[in-house]
């Protein structure tokens, strides 16, 4: 009996390793099959003409849906396990008392690796300000976290390669640092809701990630995959559907005419269209991919994506609880202006 109890943990670990290897092999097989199955299925089974627009639209939708769901599941799982070693509480402790400038850079970097979504914007903001983190440094974190996240990085890398991904990451961090620094130098604390500045934290921050076993971290990763897919699947399908329609039916010169490299206002129009939209990296990237295929410049597309992901309506609505309207308007204006500048800079560099 004792021998069985002693060996059980080792057997459990080996079972976990075997399950991981099996899951990885199943993921690779599904990814490879996805690239091979749709052409014979659509042509031989459904009888679609490979030269038709309907075929291109349906194939784009089916292939990209499976591909992005597989990539999303892998990226979210791996990063959630890695990110379980970093909590909002630990991030707050690292940023507490930091000066502007270096603090903005550190906050933007921590925003990339710290769990954050629109629903946590208000508690994160209150906790950071109450811990003594300067307003501009706090805003750098809030800008970087949704803008440069693991989903955006992973999907950009798979769809456009390392060069575009590095450009996006560099631009996103620059926007977060510059916008947060500018907002901090404007001394806008008077437009923060009074209850935020009056909040005080008692005791030491609790790190919920401390002491977790590898099994618990894996369970967190699996749960996060289920949670994110359940939460974003409508936006994912809408984004892929719009991308499929543009890929199959939009005239090749339509978007180039109004937002192409020859358009002086292309980046500005892209950002103005992106700000009121609500989506995330997984939902907007299929649309970006389709627009890129229509000939839109990469700088314009990256600016559009940043506007959609970095200035989402749910986050702005939630932030209104802690920011007065003038500060919220300045926040949107500074971030949007920074994104526009990045878009024009990339268009000039990449052409």
Counting H and I runs of at least 4 residues, what is the number of helices? 16
Radius of gyration: 22 Å
Inertia-based shape: globular
Strand content: under 5%
Instruction: Note the run of SSEs as H and E.
Output: HHHHHHHHHHHHHHHH
How many E-type strands? Answer: 0
**What class do helices, strands and sheet pairing give?**
mainly alpha
Low-confidence stretches: 1-7, 201-208
What profile does the largest beta sheet have?
A: none
Q: Quote the average pLDDT.
A: 76
Task: Kindly report how far apart the N and C termini lie.
Answer: 72 Å
The helix content, as a percent range, equals: over 70%
Task: Tell me what you see in this structure.
The protein is mostly helical. It is 76% helix and 0% strand. It contains 16 helices and no strands. It has helices spanning 2-45, 53-83, 88-95, 102-113, 121-130, 135-147, 150-160, 162-185, 194-198, 214-249, 254-259, 266-274, 281-293, 298-310, 313-319, 325-350. α7 (150-160) runs parallel beside α13. The chain is globular, with a radius of gyration of 22 Å. The relative contact order is 0.11. The model is unreliable at 1-7 and 201-208 (pLDDT under 50).
